[in-house]
Amino acid sequence: MDSYSDVTSGGPFRTIGRMLVVGAASFAASMSACCAGPCSDEIHRTQAQVDARLEARAAAGSVARESTEALEHRQPTPGSIAAAESRLGEVSAAAVEAVGAAMARAREADRAGDRSTCEQALADVRRMIGR
Predict the structure, then answer these.
(1) Which residues, in sequence order, are CB contacts of 37 under 8 Å at separation 6+?
(2) What are the residues whose beta carbons fall under 8 Å from the beta carbon of 55, sequence distance 6 or more?
(3) Mean pLDDT in the chain?
(4) What b-and-e string marks burial along 19-52, b requiring 16 or more CB atoms within 10 Å of the CB?
(5) CB-count exposure of residue 11 (10 Å: 0-12, 13-18, 19+)
(6) Which helix (H) or strand (E) holds 35?
(7) Which of 11, 20, 63, 118 is geometrically suited to a Cys-Cys bond with 6, CB 3.0 to 4.6 A?
(8) What is the rounded CA–CA span in Å between residue 6 and residue 124?
(9) What are phi and psi of 89, to 5 degrees?
(10) What pLDDT, on the 0 to 100 scale, is given for residue 120?
């Protein structure tokens, strides 16, 4: 440190702080790439297909009374749509549960780095949703 003014104005400390922020941001950005499993992208695509299928069925299906959550201005989730369709009999509860379980197996296999099991679970999901 050169002088008292360097300390009070932030001088070298400000530079170190900026370097830490840039380093932390770089580290955080690299974490998503390094921690992605062997079929993370395929899981995201398959989840989008499941969600799209649920939304399409909801749009074409029967109408039900709005839930309390809807009346409180909460947005529907794929899970709440699936539950509502199950109650209406358009999608069985067993089918909803089976798709959810297969997606969970795919995510667990992806975390473990097991591409084969992940791909099999995703194939099961696509078969169940007719894709």
Answers:
(1) 43, 109, 110, 111, 112, 113, 118
(2) 78, 81
(3) 74
(4) eeeeeeeeeeeeeeeeeebebbebbeebbebbee
(5) middle
(6) helix 11-35
(7) 11
(8) 64
(9) 85, 10
(10) 97
